[in-house]
Design a protein that fits this description.
The complex is a heterodimer of chains A (about 475) and B (about 220). Chain A has about 475 residues and is of the alpha/beta class. Chain A folds into two domains: about 1-285, Aconitase, domain 3, CATH 3.30.499; about 290-470, Aconitase, domain 3, CATH 3.30.499. Chain A contains 16 helices and 19 strands. In chain A, a hairpin with a 5-residue loop joins β1 and β2. With about 220 residues, chain B is of the alpha/beta class. In chain B, β3 (about 105-110), α4 (about 115-120) and β4 (about 125-130) form a beta-alpha-beta unit. Chain B has a seven-stranded mixed β-sheet. The chains are: A alpha/beta (about 475), B alpha/beta (about 220). Bound molecules: iron/sulfur cluster. Iron/sulfur cluster binds near residues 134, 411 and 414 of chain A.
Chain lengths: ~475, ~220
């Protein structure tokens, strides 16, 4: 019999039963909840008189709608009355049902996908769900992690299982040696360019190869995070010594005897050498340039030294979508991106707001100044603990001296639910994951890129090839 | 949940590929705490010329006359026919609630975002996958029809039809049965309560570190 893939192993480990009609029930080890996709689920429980199946499997945190200033004031620091009510509703629901909450003023508060791994709430070999598509992030720790809808959130609360179907297996291998200035963000954008935003539909994607093995867990999270932008629900990286070192000592990670026992099991969390994948993709990274999106879909991406394709080369010959994207972005086919002036810079989100991202940015902007034409450049740490660490390491002082605004943790300008957003026609260098029309604010124009690329854009006031600054 | 049997309704075309759930329901409305009342905000950014929010009465806002959902008879549309990868992006079920509350019962497209597709079933909406060619055929008929196109969707028979023309579609038996009956999936799963309990007990013994609470 052929060997099993990592995904197959995780699937079988959690399969409770397959019903007569073909639906599988998958046991869920951890559910993370936030204020946007949970109120209707708690309402549903109330309506049917149901209770959460297993309280200690859940953790809630407000992150999407929270402001990134005046955190010390707690709830009353939220000016928007409707957002305030939503954050309060989460707290009320958690109190009523007994779910643990990292509330607004808790030092551990942060973006749900940053705090899971940070706290050791995300452990190898788990199944993790959250009412949020970027739950794929947690797959970096060899977990099966998937975003779900609110009805499913309610279902998992009530039954500790997910009704689902098995996915197909895709393996993406990055070959070659990473050039300087190129990181996980560039890798995942290059993959999305190659297979398209629907390319991973129906698959779990495992990232493999020496390049991936050489990445830190935080960088692997960036890869897995944007797996959903490639159309796949789950991204995975096999367990190795890098994962083990990351997990050890986290607040909720097992210790002592329990850790030794856990690590014995975790050692098995890799695809067998004779496992077969439904689809194999190889990407050569040796000549990869920093990636920047030009359009309104993450697949509309080019190397920073390249040019926007001509209409004749539109993806799937879909010239009308391409023309619409160009109109929205105020750009033309064939145009280069280098030198394109920007109005705002956003460094943050569950893709790129962990400590390593901030260190890389600080290295680049130390002693520099945000360009005069940039109206606003904000850095939003992924969690309260990332914020505290960045301050302790002196990174925050570097950012502030360079003219960046240093904020409290949350989703912020990634989706613009609080007052951090783009105005019409404002062009933004962003480290987040979605460049959809209106994503960062109605009429706003988003260019996705890596943290150091965004930092370089902030200093120069226009899109810049960061490799020039590293020489 | 409303059972789905047969729907005969007006088709609204959205031929673009990759229409994301942010576009269907912009973030402002994610602040609502309810599961209903999103119909007026479907495709909000394109549908209105003046800004909106949860606390702004949509009837006081200026509509964009050139947007299709503001034009009769599409204001009464029940079936969306769309380009590939419809519903990609954010997992927000609010997008499906907005479609449902507007009156949409079914969506026909060459492919769907995975999470969106699942969300449809959980709200009694039927996502139908037809080939690119078949979707183009329907869109071509729609663009030629003087009034608008009406399609009949028969879930039992698994067909989409317009007069003599019939397009059969595939659907998983379990999904079909749940839609036809309007089943509550939690109730269905809880029939397996013993199996879940037994599995959990075994897991507790085998992987005890997953069941330690707090620090
Ligand atoms: S940072 Fe952005 S992508 Fe990540 S969870 Fe928040 S809103 Fe979603």
């Amino acid at each position: 019999m052929a060997g099993a893939t990592l995904y197959d192993k995780l699937w079988h480990e959690h399969l409770v039963t397959t019903l007569d009609d073909g639906t599988s029930l998958l046991y869920i080890d951890r559910q993370l909840l936030h204020e946007i996709t949970s109120p209707q689920a708690f309402d549903g429980l109330r309506q049917f008189g149901r209770k959460p199946w297993r309280l200690d499997a859940n953790l809630a945190v407000p992150d999407h709608a929270v402001p990134t200033r005046f955190r010390e004031h707690g709830l009353i620091g939220i000016e928007d009355a409707i957002a305030r009510k939503q954050v309060k509703t989460l707290a009320d629901n958690c109190a009523e049902f007994g779910v643990e909450l990292f509330d607004l003023t808790d030092a551990r508060q942060g973006i749900v996908h940053v705090i899971g791994p940070e706290q050791g709430l995300t452990l190898p070999g788990m199944t993790i769900v959250c009412g949020d598509s970027h739950t794929s992030t947690h797959g970096a720790l060899a977990t099966l992690a998937m975003g779900i809808g609110t009805s499913e959130v309610e279902h998992v609360l009530a039954t500790q299982t997910l009704r689902t179907q098995k996915l197909k297996n895709m393996r993406v291998t990055f070959d070659g040696k990473l050039p300087p200035g190129i990181g996980a963000k560039d890798l995942i954008l290059a993959l999305i360019e190659k297979i398209g935003t629907a390319g991973g539909r129906g698959y779990a994607i495992e990232y493999a190869g020496d390049v991936v093995r050489s990445l830190s867990v935080e960088a692997r999270m960036t890869l897995c995070n944007m797996t959903i932008e490639a159309g796949a629900r789950a991204g995975l990286v096999a367990f190795d010594e890098v994962t083990a070192a990351y997990v050890r000592g986290r607040p909720r990670a097992p210790r002592g005897e329990a850790l030794a026992q856990a690590e014995d099991y975790w050692q098995t969390l890799h695809s067998d050498s004779d496992a077969t994948f439904d689809t194999e993709i190889h990407i050569d990274v040796a000549n990869l340039a920093p990636q920047v999106t030009w359009g309104t879909s993450p697949e509309m991406v080019i190397g920073v030294d390249g040019q926007i394709p001509s209409l004749a080369n539109a993806r799937d010959a879909d010239t009308s979508s391409m023309q619409r994207a160009l109109n929205y972005m105020g750009l033309a086919a064939g145009q280069p991106l280098l030198g394109l002036a920007i109005d705002k810079v956003f460094i943050g989100s569950c893709t790129n707001a962990r400590i390593e991202d901030l260190r890389a940015v600080a290295d680049l902007v130390e002693g520099e100044r945000v360009a005069a034409n940039v109206q606003q450049a904000i850095i939003v740490p992924g969690s309260g603990l990332v914020k505290a660490q960045a301050e302790a390491e002196g990174l925050a002082a570097i950012f502030i001296a360079a003219g960046f605004e240093w904020r409290d943790s949350g989703c912020s300008m990634c989706l613009g639910m609080n007052d951090d957003k783009l105005g019409e026609f404002e062009r933004c260098a962003a480290t987040s994951n979605r460049n959809f029309e209106g994503r960062q604010g109605k009429g706003g124009r988003t260019h996705l890129m890596s943290p150091i690329m965004a930092a370089a854009a902030a200093i120069h006031g226009h899109i810049t090839d960061v490799r020039e600054l590293l020489k | 949940m409303k059972p789905f049997t047969t729907v005969k309704g007006i088709v609204v075309p959205f031929p673009r590929a990759n229409i994301d759930t942010d576009a269907m329901l912009p973030k402002n409305y994610l602040k609502k705490l309810e599961k209903f009342g999103y119909g007026d905000f479907l495709f909000d950014d394109e549908r209105y010329l003046t800004p909106g929010d949860v606390d702004i009465d949509p009837s006081t806002r200026k509509k964009n006359p050139s947007f299709i959902l503001n034009q009769t008879p599409y204001t009464h549309a029940e079936i969306v026919v769309a380009g590939a990868n419809f519903g990609c992006g954010s997992s927000r079920e609010h997008a499906v609630w907005a479609l449902r509350d507007f009156g949409i019962r079914a969506i026909i497209a060459p492919s769907f975002g995975d999470i969106f597709w699942q969300n449809c079933f959980n709200n009694g909406l039927l996502p139908i996958t037809l080939s690119d060619t078949e979707v183009k055929q329907i869109l071509a008929i729609e663009s030629r029809s003087v009034q608008s196109l009406q399609l009949t969707i028969d879930l039992e028979a698994q067909t989409v039809s317009s007069g003599e023309q019939v397009w059969p579609f595939h659907i998983d038996a379990n999904k079909k049965a749940a839609l036809l009956a309007g089943l509550d999936s939690i109730g269905e799963t809880l029939r397996e309560k013993d199996a879940i309990l037994q599995f959990e007990q075994q897991r507790r013994q085998q992987r005890p570190w997953l069941f330690q609470s707090g620090d």
